[in-house]
Every structure is written in structure tokens, then in C-alpha cells.
Specification:
6-stranded mixed β-sheet; 18 helices; single chain
Length: 526
């Protein structure tokens, strides 16, 4: 039986998967036109699966000898360009033995050549003896570093005019980033080529996109066809909303429900299953998510992510475009405007990881905030936070690496510690919003025994140095948020970051306010 794959390339006989070529139709057209081009996308979006499928299809049609191979083994060679080339040639030979018929494979052994021309001489000899034009996919090309990378790119450029009789017909470079952003020095993600000139023969740079809502439905429908277990309309909509179509997340959500939560067929998979699976993925922080959050404390990542969390404005200096391009290529930020975290699951993971150190210092018992009727005692929760903030706020906020949003992260960590014991904290944040909107969702049993959801709205604002009190604007924004949620009361928290503000213990207090639309508002100044 097929299953949802979350590790390595997909196989149509084993995994639920979309037709690989359909995700990148332009690649075939460019390949047939003898183009040399670039394909880039964040990790675990299906690049290798797509390229392998395309290579096999082109070879099976009998017009080309097409092969997808990896450059990853060359990562450890650094500036040793001869070793980097040998690593690439070695993987070509291994993959060709597995994927190509004997008459299309490269010569054995590779011809002897000067250390700086091993790859070019090898590809030239293969192109001359192969009865079909060569189409080569250099997967993980940006794993190469320094002079090893430059050498490979320059040899491909030098051989380009001799195609197709004496050099590959088409070459595709596939990696995380575009050519100008490939690593230029050993060990240096931050060091870039800064130019496409070592590979200025490229016709185009393609980016592999995320799944559309229709593609997610088509993927999940394969599980329904195999097992008879359907996804409700609400589950499908929520799945795409939470993942924004990121392929690994789309598969991981469904896998969590089917294999880990074990919702048994033919019972339909509902939105509440997807919601719970999302929470489990965030808490588990599997390898894919960990690899992303490991980047959060890189300076150029922080410069983009910090204002996205706090609702501030993006920088406008000349280096910002490079920072934004880098974070987009990592997949942390959406590729289109407005600038925002790529999807709600990444957003939750980022916030929880940044506040995880704080959460370890919160010693409250979550179930102590549950009222006899099963509802959450929000008033007591806020009072406990205020006491915690008075005592520990300065120390904890100083220890948070994202200094501009430290108070908000402390409060959100406190809420996670309590609410995540049985409910959810949903957040809306983004550049230029000037606030963070939180919706606390807490399940309880109503008088008739039916499950209900208690919802509470909390808005976070910051009184920044040199600015006016954000209360008037904040209370109006809270009104808008309450309108969208259909609630009649809310909480506004204002963190005072001005140098002239008094000590935390003195300024932290509760007040009552009324919104422009007459709603009662609990105001916490901290």
C-alpha cells in the first residue's frame, strides 16, 4: 500500500505523489532546446523527485541519454577542485549504472586529464561516444564550495559552445539558491559569488513552486482512492491554509493523521484531525522543521524575521534585498509579496523556538487555570503572567536573542505553557501591522455534553522610544480583530520599551478601557 512520504525522493509505486513533470513543464521545453538553465527551490519541495522523473522520461522516449545525479559528495572537498570533480564524476558513474542502459553509459574509465579539466574532458568523451545527446541534471550543485564550485561552473561554460556533438546537449543546475548566491568560499553560506558570470550561459532560472489547493486535493484523493478514507471539505481547506502548499508539510500533515494518530478508515479525516496533526508536528519539530529553525539566529535571517514577528517595518538599506532573497530561498518567507512567513506552521515553529528558553522557566500548573465548568480562566491567567513579568521580565527579555520582540515572545511563551495543555494559540503577525493578534482556543463541554470552543482575543502592542502611546490605535485595531472573530470583549497588552519608563515592577498594572465600538477591554500595561 502506498503512503505519504516525508523522507527522500518519491517513488510513484510506493508513495502518493503528483506527476513530477507536471510540476515543472518548462524544464522539458528548455531541455529540448539545448538550454543550460538553473532550477532552485527550498529543501524538501520535490526538486530531486521531479528531476529524476524527467530524466527517466526523456531517456525512455529514446531521444536523449538523460541523468540526474548528486554533487553532494563534493561538499567536503572545499577548494580542492580536482577532488570535487572526481566526486561529481563518481556519482555520475554510479547513477548511470543504475539508470541508463549499457550503450548510453559514460566511458570506463574516465579519460585522464589535467586536474583542472577532469570534468570537461570526461563529459566531452561521453558526449562523443554516446549515441544519444546528453541531458544532465546536477542536483545539489550548491553543495560544492569555493574553487571546487568555480571550477565546475567554468568548465561547463567553456564546453557550452561545443554542444551537442562534443559536450552535453542540455545541463540543469539544481540547488537551494540561484547561481549568483552559490557559496564562494569554504564554510561560508554568507559568502556569495555575487554574479552569474561563472555560468553566464544559463538561459533561465526556474523556481519549483508549492502545491496549489487543487494539487493538495489531488494528492489526498490518492489516499481516498486506495483506502476509501475521505478528507472533509473543511480538512482540505485547513490543510492548504496551514501549509500554504509546502510539499513536505502537505505530506507530513496527512502522514501524521493516517499513521501516527491512526484515524481508521473509512472514518473521514476532519478539520479537527488536521488541527491536531499540525500541533503534533510543531511540538515534534521533525528534521525538516529543525533544519529551518537552526537558521533563525543567523544575522541576515533575524533581520528579516524579527519585524515579521513584531509587526514592524522592514529595513530599506541596500543589503536588505540580499537578506530577503536568502531567507526566501531557505523557504522561511513566501516568495511573493507581501513579505510574510511562508506558512502558519513555520510561523508557529519560529515563535515557539524563540520562546522555548523562556517557557522552561515557567513553573505554573496549566490545569490550575481550568474553571469547574471546563472553561479557561483568562483573568487569572493574565494576573499570573503580570506577577511573573514583574518578577522575571527584565532578566528573561534580556536573554531573548530577538531583542525587538522579546516582551511579546515572553508573553507568548507563557500562554503556550498554559493553553497548549489542551487548546491552541493562533496568531496573526506580519510586517507593517504594528501588532500581534492572538486568538486563544480552548475546548470544553457545554451543559448538554456537546464540545464547544472558548475563544479569547489578545492583542500585543509596543510603546517604542520616541513614539506616542499606542493605546488609541491599538484599541481601534483590537475592535477590528474582534469584528473578524465575532467576539464582544478582548485584551490589549502594551509593553513599554521607552528608556524613561519606570521599572517593570512599578509600571505593570491592569486598567479598564472601552473600544470605539463600545466593547469592554482589559488593558495590561507592562
Amino acid at each position: 500500500m502506498r503512503f505519504f512520504n516525508t523522507a527522500g525522493p518519491c517513488d510513484p509505486e510506493t508513495h502518493y505523489m503528483l506527476p513530477a513533470e507536471a510540476r515543472l513543464p518548462e524544464a522539458r521545453v528548455l531541455g529540448e532546446r539545448r538550454a543550460y538553465f538553473v532550477l532552485h527551490a527550498p529543501r524538501q519541495t520535490g526538486k530531486t523527485t521531479t528531476l529524476r522523473a524527467l530524466a527517466r522520461a526523456l531517456t525512455a522516449e529514446g531521444r536523449f541519454a538523460a541523468l540526474c545525479f548528486s554533487c553532494e559528495a563534493g561538499e567536503a572537498t572545499g577548494d580542492d577542485y580536482a577532488a570535487a570533480q572526481r566526486a561529481v564524476l563518481g556519482d555520475i558513474r554510479d547513477r548511470a549504472a543504475d539508470e541508463l542502459p549499457a550503450e548510453l553509459r559514460p566511458p570506463t574509465p574516465w579519460p585522464a586529464a589535467e586536474p583542472e579539466r577532469l570534468l570537461a574532458v570526461g563529459l566531452r568523451a561521453w558526449a562523443k561516444c554516446c549515441p544519444q545527446p546528453l541531458v544532465l541534471f546536477f542536483d545539489e550543485i550548491d553543495a560544492l564550495r569555493g574553487e571546487g564550485l568555480r571550477s565546475v561552473l567554468r568548465q561547463l561554460r567553456a564546453g557550452y559552445p561545443d554542444r551537442p556533438g562534443a559536450f552535453p546537449w542540455s545541463v540543469v543546475l539544481c540547488g537551494l539558491r540561484d547561481v549568483r548566491d552559490y557559496k564562494a568560499a569554504s564554510g561560508g553560506d554568507a559568502t556569495r559569488l555575487g554574479t552569474a558570470s561563472p555560468f553566464n550561459i544559463k538561459v533561465k532560472s526556474l523556481r519549483l513552486g508549492d502545491f496549489t489547493a487543487a494539487e493538495l486535493r489531488a494528492l489526498y484523493a490518492q489516499h481516498t482512492a486506495d483506502t476509501g478514507q475521505s478528507f472533509t471539505e473543511e480538512a482540505l481547506s485547513l490543510g492548504h491554509e496551514l501549509t500554504a502548499g509546502q510539499p513536505w508539510l502537505v505530506n507530513a500533515l496527512a502522514r501524521e493523521v493516517v499513521e501516527e494518530m491512526r484515524v481508521p478508515p473509512p472514518a473521514p479525516i476532519a478539520a479537527e484531525h488536521i488541527d491536531r496533526a499540525k500541533e503534533r508536528l510543531i511540538v515534534a519539530r521533525q528534521t525538516h522543521l529543525d533544519s529551518l529553525v537552526a537558521r533563525l539566529h543567523e544575522e541576515r535571517v533575524q533581520r528579516v524575521i524579527e519585524p515579521l514577528i513584531g509587526g514592524g517595518l522592514l529595513r530599506t538599506d541596500s543589503s536588505y534585498d540580499d537578506d530577503l532573497s536568502y531567507v526566501r530561498d531557505l523557504g522561511l518567507v513566501a516568495s511573493e509579496l507581501p513579505v510574510r512567513v511562508a506558512n502558519p506552521i513555520y510561523r508557529e515553529v519560529i515563535v515557539r523556538v524563540l520562546g522555548s528558553g523562556v517557557e522552561g522557566n515557567i513553573l505554573v500548573e496549566p490545569r490550575s487555570f481550568v474553571l469547574p465548568d471546563g472553561r479557561l480562566d483568562l483573568g487569572r491567567l493574565l494576573e499570573e503572567f503580570a506577577a511573573f513579568w514583574r518578577e522575571h521580565g527584565e532578566v528573561l527579555a534580556a536573554g531573548v536573542g530577538y531583542h525587538e520582540v522579546a516582551p511579546q515572545l515572553v508573553l507568548m511563551a507563557f500562554l503556550h505553557r498554559v493553553v497548549n495543555s489542551g487548546g491552541y494559540v493562533d496568531r496573526e503577525c506580519g510586517v507593517g501591522r504594528g501588532r500581534i493578534d492572538l486568538c486563544l482556543r480552548w475546548p470544553y463541554l457545554a451543559a448538554g455534553g456537546q464540545r464547544q470552543w472558548q475563544r479569547e482575543a489578545v492583542e500585543l502592542k509596543v510603546w517604542a522610544p520616541g513614539k506616542q502611546d499606542p493605546l488609541p490605535r491599538g484599541i481601534g485595531q483590537l475592535d477590528e480583530y474582534l469584528d473578524r472573530l465575532g467576539l464582544e470583549t478582548g485584551v490589549l497588552v502594551v509593553f513599554d520599551r521607552r528608556p524613561e519608563a519606570g521599572p517593570i515592577a512599578e509600571r505593570t498594572r491592569f486598567e479598564r478601557a472601552t473600544s470605539p465600538k463600545g466593547r469592554p477591554v482589559v488593558l495590561l500595561r507592562a
